[in-house]
């Protein structure tokens, strides 16, 4: 971050991705054109990578969430699971992790049967062992990513 104003712009957008230039201008005390120029620089530098809607999973038919740890069956196999699983649309996120497992996936599906099918597809596509944890309730997610002080 170049300065405190950039930090504040990113924080405001993280809290409300639909904030208008006028909203941001009022929040940071700059003109609309100055805020717009800073936004373009933040986007060009890759600090702001996009804007998206937060969608209610139940409303779109994917109420069941799960974390799925994957571990290669053969430690000598290529480390290409993310590429092998990218085509599975139920997987929202794939994280490389420390520990016994190689990756942690986060998935949303319609039903327990759909989860079973997804786990089978993951095992088949990537040649991995899985460990699945079903989410019972989510208290919060998609929290604003506010830049740390000094960044």
From TrEMBL:
A GO cellular component annotation in the UniProt record: cytosol
Domain of life assignment: Bacteria
GO BP annotation list: response to amino acid
Pfam families recorded: AsnC_trans_reg, HTH_24
SMART domains assigned: HTH_ASNC
GO molecular function, one term: sequence-specific DNA binding
Gene3D superfamilies: 3.30.70.920, Winged helix-like DNA-binding domain superfamily/Winged helix DNA-binding domain
Assigned keywords, A-Z: DNA-binding, Transcription, Transcription regulation
Positions of the HTH asnC-type domain: 1-63
Protein name per UniProt: AsnC family transcriptional regulator
Source species of the chain: Microbacterium lacticum
Phylogenetic lineage: Bacteria, Bacillati, Actinomycetota, Actinomycetes, Micrococcales
């Amino acid at each position: 971050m170049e300065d405190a104003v950039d930090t504040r712009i990113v924080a405001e957008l993280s809290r409300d991705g639909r904030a208008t230039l006028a909203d941001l201008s009022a929040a940071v005390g700059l003109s609309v054109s100055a805020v717009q120029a800073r936004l373009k620089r933040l986007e060009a530098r890759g600090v702001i990578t996009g804007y998206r809607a937060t969608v209610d999973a139940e409303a779109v038919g994917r109420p069941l969430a799960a974390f799925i740890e994957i571990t290669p069956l053969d430690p000598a196999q290529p480390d290409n699971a993310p590429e092998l699983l990218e085509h599975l649309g139920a997987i929202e996120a794939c994280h490389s992790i420390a520990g016994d497992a190689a990756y942690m996936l986060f998935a949303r599906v319609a039903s327990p049967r759909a989860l079973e099918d997804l786990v089978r597809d993951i095992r088949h596509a990537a040649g991995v062992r899985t460990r699945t944890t079903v989410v019972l309730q989510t208290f919060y997610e998609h929290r604003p990513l506010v830049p740390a002080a000094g960044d």
